[in-house]
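Async update (no meeting this week)

Hi team, since we skipped the sync, here's where things stand on the single-chain job. The sequence we agreed to prioritize is pasted below, unchanged from the tracker. I ran it this morning and attached the output directly underneath so nobody has to dig for it. Comments welcome in thread, and please keep replies under the output.
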Amino acid sequence: MLSYEELTPPERALWDAFPEGRRVDLRTGVTEADDPADGARWGAGRTVRAAVVAALLLGANDEERSGAVAALRLVGARVSGRLDLSGAEISHTLSLEGCRLDEPVRLYGATTRTIVIADSWVPGVEAELARIEGDLDLRRSTVAGGALILINARMAGNLLLMGAEIWGPNEWAVLFGGLILEGSVFGQRLVTRGGLRLPGAQLLNGLFLPGARLENPGGVALAAGAVSASSVDCSQGFTAQGEVRLRNARIEGLLTFEGAQLSGDGTALDCVSMVVGEFDHRLAAPPSGLVDLRSAQTTWFRDSERSWPEKVLLDGFTYGAIRSGGDPAAGGIGVTRVRDEVARRLDWVRRNPGYAPQPYEQLAGWYRQLGHDDDARRVLLAKQRHRRLTLSLPARLWGYLLDVTVGYGYRPWMAGVWLLALTLLGTVAFSTHTPRPVKEGEGSPFQPFVYTLDLLVPIGDLGQRGGWYWSDGGVQWLAYLLIAFGWVLTTAIVAGVTRALQKS
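Output:
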């Protein structure tokens, strides 16, 4: 048990100030001299033992002062020794500002009020299973050599990491797995050397990392698999050196990467089976690794031409609405019908490796929902052309025939073009030659136009095809070819239209 006589002058000042919650400021006023990064050189006049801090928080000088609330508020001090409050029940606020802590702060299983370690230098904060009935404030602090650990902790307030720098000892700098946070994580301009890991965390009011920089090259920069959050903001220059993993995440509101830069080896962004309300994927530059959106679901999706790498996994990705770049009020798909936009969407879908029908059908369904049936047919035609590449040679040849004749049934007007062209060809060719009747004096007079139609249309009889024949071999072969073209054209029309009707 510490006695008052054993305390140094700065410790006595802190002891006396504690019952009234007054700040004890040990700074010199010289910026360079007050930098916590150099706090290891601060002498006895600016040093407070961690044991004294722990004793006060645990009730060593817990006398009540009328009109005051006891709290420990220390500024510009070096805290020597290990501040270990594991399992403690602390009913007072702890505030350390501009301080240098020699060893990690240990809060394993503790129950505390608000904890402030702002503008400070600390080797780590270990708070597994802690219950914090307030905020944990590490704004502009440097956590160097040890991780920030809140595994399976529960917090009633906010986690404040704005401007903080956390240098992890290994792959992970921040460990929040299983954290239940009733407030928000505010990490504007946060810098980590090592990944930020929070699988299964429940962030009831969101994760905000605009302008943050997470560095874990070759590994995972942000591991948020199965996280549950109201919103996730990784925008305004957010940078991830390493994979961003949101597999199975559930985000009720907005997930935004607007203006972000994603760099991953192999995979840059993993959103497999993610469910999100609004997804803004307008990156500052194409990610260096692939983007995996398989089986992800979003109500509203937005991207830009800079959003996509060469490879995007889209099979099973569903969206209720989709827009591209610019001002949402100005339009995008569904507001302004720009044909080049359809081409850009098809290029996006084709970035999915191999052939998968679902991305095409999802896009076509979106166009149909808007009443843009022409664009939907264009997408489905592109799907058939892509599928053709996976077929055997005979099937590919048949596919080419369906494509050039009726556009796989999505362009039936092409059959009319072929019919008109062949009718003109036959009419002109047959009008310059005289056929011979099969039976003299019988049948209707020869009419080149009707005769050509009778050859081209295999169903029915217009009374011309069987009544005349040609002595000129070349013209007779033209008649045979027209009959063959008629059968091929009719078969293609039936097959193509049947396919289109079945898909509808």
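Quick observations from my side:
The first helix runs from residue 9 to 17.
The chain has nine helices and 38 strands.
Reply here if anything looks off.
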